[in-house]
Amino acid sequence: MSKIDLFDQNLNNPLFQPLAEKMRPKNLKDFVGQKHILGKGKPLQTMIEKGNLQSIILWGPPGSGKTSIARLVAKYSKSHFEQFSAVTSGVADVRRVTKEAAERLKFNQKRTILFVDEIHRFNKAQQDAFLPFVEDGTIILIGATTENPSFEINAPLISRSQVFVLNALEEKDIAQVTRRALHYFPKHRFDKNALEYIVKKSNGDARTALNALELAANLNRHITLKIAEEAVQQKAIYYDKKGDWHYDVISAFIKSMRGSNPDASLYWLARMIKAGEDPVFIARRMVIFASEDISNAQPTALVVATSTMQAVHMVGMPEAGIILAQCATYLATAPKSRASYNGLVAAMKDVDENRLENVPLQLRNAATNLMKDLSYGKDYKWTDDKKFQETIEFMPKNLKNKKYYFPPKKD
Q1: pTM
Q2: Total count of domains within the chain
Q3: How far apart are CA 177 and CA 328, in angstroms?
Q4: Which pLDDT score is estimated for 16?
Q5: Residues 19, 183: contact at Cβ < 8 Å?
Q6: Any long-range contacts for 119-122 (C-beta under 8 Å, 24+ apart)?
Q7: How far is CA 129 from CA 158, 160, 219, in A?
């Protein structure tokens, strides 16, 4: 036996498979997460169970179960499963697979599921090559993508497919997957805080969690928090025993800025940075804060916060931490006003609770002569004359003279 043959055998041998591959669900009952599409009465599960197959696009983050779903579709429908990656395959591969699929359907009456991982990496010509075979039923196409299909996949292909959106797995889902994986390591001992750390640092990616678990098991028989840190390559920063640090610390950060305390703001920011929090998430929350809590009391706050988010995108960590600190202290020391936010909330309440009256005629757009004859926009003109403005009824009749915006009084 040649070395190449031995290598191929090893790849197909379960003993040599990565843990993530071993853990692929064998049936729908074993699949974890994505309850909005996989569950009793849910669209994808119903399609799989009834065998009414059609081409689908699975859009979701890494490790959310796209490949596992494709394999389950093939298993339940008793179809031939063909997989290739858009990174390494081209039009010639598509032609070969579709030719074999046509022969399989003709002579064996067996359908072929063609699973294309990272389908967004195919160019327009490569994607177009699928169309005739999807239309005539030669293949059932299952495309997996981490990118928005609306932008990355041809419209004709999307129109012939059902798009299912997958979400990053919740921590409870990742915890369930890791617990199941422990039976592959009967001689190992895993500390609870080590498992919790691996779950938290996986960021909703089951494959990442399983890879870290497998690496930790290779490092030591007793997996402590320190071993888990080495496997994940990041030091653990815990904020409380309940594991709610993500929400609690960002809350403390926002409230410290709201309380005009730059020192506390920097402390909670440092906690998030050291814990590996997504810097864009922090910047995004500051953009919201700048408009919600500072608003027109200092309009430049929104400009600074927006520039911060753009800069964090361009620079990346660790230097982005400096930019976040500058913005946090600026926002913390800025004057505060919730007048715009409170006004919007009050206006939204009126929209929900009151009759939606027609737009006053004087405010309507007179785009045609008929509209002008019907008094659309009659006597309206642009002017900064306050007396003229007072003659115009800007609000619907049922909300005449209603006020929402109460800016703070200046000293």
Answers
A1: 0.53
A2: 3
A3: 38
A4: 61
A5: no
A6: 119/57, 119/86, 119/143, 119/144, 119/145, 119/153, 120/86, 120/145, 120/146, 120/147, 120/149, 120/152, 120/153, 121/86, 121/87, 122/86
A7: 14, 14, 47
108 and 156 in a single domain? The answer is yes
Render pLDDT for 240-292 as a digit per residue (tens, 0 to 9). 433 456 778 889 999 999 999 999 999 999 988 887 788 999 999 999 999 99
Last residue of a domain, one of 298, 333, 368: 333
Q: Per residue in 124-151, pLDDT tens? A: 777 887 788 888 878 888 888 888 787 7
Domain housing 204: 171-232
Q: What percent of the chain has pLDDT over 70?
A: 91
> How far apart (Å, rounded) are the C-alpha atoms in residues 59 and 290?
33
How many residues belong to the chain?
Answer: 411
The amino acid sitting at 374 is L
At 104 the three-state DSSP class reads helix
**Which token pair is 75?**
């298993």
* Long-range contact set of residues 351-355: C-beta below 8 Å, sequence gap at least 24: 354/398, 354/399, 355/398
